Amino acid sequence: MTFVGWSQIIILLALVTFSAWALGGFMAAVFTGKRTFLSQAIAPLECVINRLAGVSLKEQNWQAYALAMLAFNAVGFVVLYGLMRLQSFLPLNPRGFSAVPEALSFNTAMSFVTNTNWQAYAGESTMSHLVQMAGFTVHNFLSAATGIALAVAFTRAFARSSSATIGNFWDDLVKSMLYILLPLSIIVAIAFMTTGIPQTLQGSVDATTLEGVKQTIAMGPMASQEAIKQLGTNGGGFLNANSAHPFENPSAWSNYLSIFAMLVVSGAMPFMFGQMVGDKRQGRALFITMGLFIVVGTAIVYWAETSGNPIIQALGIDPLQGNMEGKELRFGQAMTALFVVATTGLSCGAVNAMHSSLTPLGGLVPLFMIQLGEVLPGGVGSGLYGILVIAVLTVFIAGLMVGRTPDYLGKKIEAKEMKLAMLALLILPLVILGFSAVAAMLPTALSSLANAGPHGLTEILYAYSSAAGNNGSAFAGLNANTGWFNTTLGISMFLGRFAYIVPMLAIAGSLAAKTKIPASSGSFPTHGPMFVALLVGVILILGGLQYFPSLALSPIVEHFLMLAGKTF
Predict the structure, then answer these.
(1) The model's pTM
(2) How far is 538 from 53, CA to CA, in rounded Å?
(3) pLDDT tens, 182-193?
(4) Largest separation between any pair of C-alpha atoms in the chain
(5) Is 59 in contact with 65 (CB distance < 8 Å)?
(6) Which of the residues 128, 308, 324, 538 has an alpha carbon 20 to 30 A from that of 521?
(7) How far, rounded to the nearest angstrom, does the alpha carbon of residue 86 sit from its chain's CA centroid?
(8) Distance (Å, whole) CA 359 – CA 562
(9) Is the separation of the CB atoms in 122 and 240 below 8 Å?
């Protein structure tokens, strides 16, 4: 670890913090109906879209909000599935790709609808330009906007008193796209093009290497997809190598911008929350909690990777660079470590290094960050409502511990909210550990592994964690394009997204209906260091109790085997 490396990390996180604070205030203004500097240009377009869509903008209760969200995503799934199955008959297919197989189409459509963007295919050799643009890029916007809308609805539950409604899904969805995601994406896409990322409808170019070998280089509209891929914490790359590919991430500057774009919108959500509920300290407490995990996780990965692998060093490899296997020299260890932690603390899933090539402890961190619930800071929108569910659980536990009233922001937390919170929180471990246990015993699944022993188990755990957590990054080494994995990972994505959202919206409906009471001496403060410490503790305890036994059999035991000089 170097001073220069840490300086890069600190400067980038400082830029993210300042930008997130400013963006959070803007988002709060948008969703509370205040006029912003974009209103004059966008408000007429917003009205036109709402009229053409023909949807009612009447306020909805939580059931109506949930049904609208589910119906919208169901239609999106069918359309995207159809695009892939029919792509050989559709235009903008310069390389003449054939129809995508049924199981892969199901997996991929579910992936992009749920903001997971898991890719069991090589984009440059499987998908047409039309599917990449009208399918994947569009759903990058729609899935991210859905997450923002849901977070805003949950925020209103704390901001309102004795309310039967939590907003209108269609209104929140359109505002999320027009005021936030689209303007930011245009700016970031232009910035990406200046760093060298292609933006063209050309299919491919042929080049002759120095050895005289002909090579076909895939081209396409990459910069536009790259922008919303990072801003919307989607992570799905135009090319198979994702952000490790020099077309998607050509330089240290594009890498810096990629990390910034990943973090800024999710980082803005807590600040938006604080402003909308009328207490900025609440938002700061959530942001600090998220930031602590990002900093500590980055420090562990940075240390583990710069310490290197003693097995490789024993072969006579220069130890000064640390473990550079699976990494790009143009990024360096510091920015690779921050990218690894940011993309898994978020539900982004973009990768600029192969996670399977990380040291065991370096690989443990991104796996554990996903398993903690994708709330640090989590996906766009999903991170905020995810950590708020854990905050509800935290204040209930704190109230039991110190004998104070279990309430959060003036809303009393009762048995109903706790049952719904636990229902939501148990979805991830049930899906991750359940499917992983079956896959670890099933010959069909085991035949997809590139490694045996603890590393092979990590490949399985990471795949189901990434799918259920709606992350989308791959550990590598696992052939996921099989009937078993396409189907079970698709189911995991669906449950990880929607089986969590419905109980969360039910909590929102219950809290919105309650009368907001002012804080008293019996209320537990939820904005100071004590609450941050308790929230961190609850997140770690939940993760440790649920996943430590499986982690002990995979990256942890692999670490001790590495120290002993043993491999599988």
Answers:
(1) 0.92
(2) 43
(3) 999 999 999 999
(4) 79
(5) no
(6) 538
(7) 29
(8) 9
(9) yes
List the beta bridge partners of residue 523.
405
Q: What is the pLDDT of residues 506-541, one digit of tens each?
A: 999 999 999 988 877 767 788 889 999 999 999 998
Residue of 537, 548, 527, 496 lying closest to 293 (CA atoms): 537
Task: State the Cα–Cα distance between residues 233 and 376, nearest whole angstrom.
Answer: 12
Looking at the DSSP bridge assignments, the partners of residue 214 are 208
Indicate the SS3 state at residue 407: strand
Closest CA to 509 of 120, 158, 24, 129: 158
Structure tokens at 349: 């899933």
Structure tokens at 159: 């901001």
> 133 near 95, Cβ under 8 Å?
no
122 vs 106, more confident: 106
Q: In the structure, what pLDDT confidence band is assigned to residue 41 with cuts at 50, 70 and 90?
A: very high
Task: Look up residue 479 and give its amino acid.
Answer: N
CB 381 within 8 A of CB 151: yes
For helices 102-113 and 138-159, give the axis angle rounded to 10 degrees: 40
Burial 497-508 (b: 16+ CB within 10 A, else e): bbbbbbbbbbbb
* Type of residue found at 192: F
Give the amino acid at 538.
V
In the chain, what are the domain boundaries? 3-205+214-278
Burial of 253: CB neighbours in 10 Å, binned 0-12, 13-18, 19+ = middle
Mean pLDDT rounded to a whole number for the chain: 90
**Tally of CB atoms within 10 A around 115:** 32
Strands (E), 188-315: 204-208, 214-218
Answer whether residue 450 shows pLDDT above 90.
Answer: no
d(CA 481, CA 458): 18
Over residues 359-389, the pLDDT tens digits come to 999 999 999 999 988 788 888 988 899 999 9
- Could you give the CA distance from residue 176 to residue 68 in angstroms, rounded to a whole number? 16
Q: How confident is the model at residue 568 (pLDDT cuts 50, 70, 90)?
A: low
DSSP classification of residue 91: S
Non-local (6+) Cβ contacts of 1 within 8 A are: 302, 303, 306, 333, 334
Contact between 259 and 168 (Cβ < 8 Å): no
pLDDT of residue 567: 67
Task: Rounding to the nearest 10 degrees, give the CA dihedral for residues 67, 375, 458, 343.
Answer: 100
Tokens read off for 245:
């590919």
**SS3 label, residue 322:** coil
